[in-house]
Design goal:
about 150 residues; 6 helices
């Protein structure tokens, strides 16, 4: 018979994953038909990679019928191309979002503005009326210390 642990166990891994998938705002995108993302799989396009890791599972969970294609390409230092997301709506229109140099949250909110519909505008107004920002600001930059503070 195994011993009882002396500490209280924390939340299970499954409950943590489910909490992440269902956090607010839920990315219910009724106007979205398909998403196609193209970005470098290594050493570049950090915001796009974080978007795929953090927000794309939430979008898939809330919209199981949306066709999502992710194309991770090899990019050398000499090549200069930008990550992009092609958004196809149910009415047939196609939009291309540039993801270069953007935070993953910024990419998420641009996608929500484009395809979420009237409930998203209502959500943003409710947040603004309560004094909260509808889009979170990026974290503040830490002051440089040591050699980094001296070097250009």
């Amino acid at each position: 018979m195994p011993r009882k642990p002396k500490t209280i166990p924390g939340p299970s891994r499954l409950s943590v994953i489910l909490a992440r998938l269902t956090q607010e705002p839920k990315p219910h995108l009724p106007n979205l038909k398909s998403l196609r993302l193209v970005y470098a799989y290594r050493n570049d396009h950090f915001g796009a990679r974080h978007f795929v890791k953090e927000d794309l599972p939430r979008i898939r969970y809330a919209n199981p019928t949306v066709d999502i294609q992710v194309d991770k390409k090899l990019k050398t230092k000499e090549e200069t191309w930008r990550p992009e997301m092609v958004v196809e709506l149910k009415n047939g229109t196609t939009h291309t979002l540039n993801m270069d140099g953007k935070w993953s949250t910024t990419i998420f909110y641009e996608l929500m503005d484009l395809s979420a519909g009237p409930w998203w505008q209502k959500y943003k107004k409710e947040r603004a009326s309560s004094g909260e920002s509808a889009t979170p600001s990026p974290p503040p930059q830490k002051p440089k210390t040591g050699a980094a503070a001296v070097l250009p």
